[in-house]
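Give me C-alpha cells for this 153-residue protein.
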Amino acid sequence: MRRIIYTSIAAPDLDRAAMFHLLHQARSANQARGLTGVLLRADRRLLQVLEGPTWKLLAVFESIRRDVRHSNVAVIEERSIAEPTFPGWPMRYFDDRKIGDARAFFEARDEGAVSAEVEEVVRDFFVEAFAASAAQVIPSRPRAVRPSSPRPC
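Here you go.
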C-alpha cells in the first residue's frame, strides 16, 4: 500500500462542469482499481492525496501526470503506508467553496485516522490558497469624509 500527495495547476478550461465530469470518471476508475483519496481545489490550484496498492497507484499516477487538464505536477510526498487514510472513498472532493466542510471532515475523523503529514499538507494548501487570493484583492480607496456642516467646530 502506498500514498502519493501532489499538487498541480488546473487548466484554464477545467471549469466546474468539467471538474465534476473528471470526478465521476476518477471515482469509477479508482473504485475498480482499489484506490482511495481526496482531491482539493482552490481557484486553479489542486492537491490530491491518492492511496492504494503500489503498482496500481503508480500506473494511475503516471496517467495523471500526463493528463492535459492540469500542469506543474509536483509530488509532495510518496511513501509506503500500512492502511488507507480514506477507506471506502474512491475520491472525496472539496473546493474552496467548501473549506469549512473539508475542515469538519478532517476533524471528524478518528484520532490518528488521518496522519499528521496529511493534515498538515491539507491545512497548508488552504492557507496558501487563501493568502494567494487575498493578495489579489485590491482594497477600495476610502471616500473622503465630508463635514456634516459647513461651519468648523
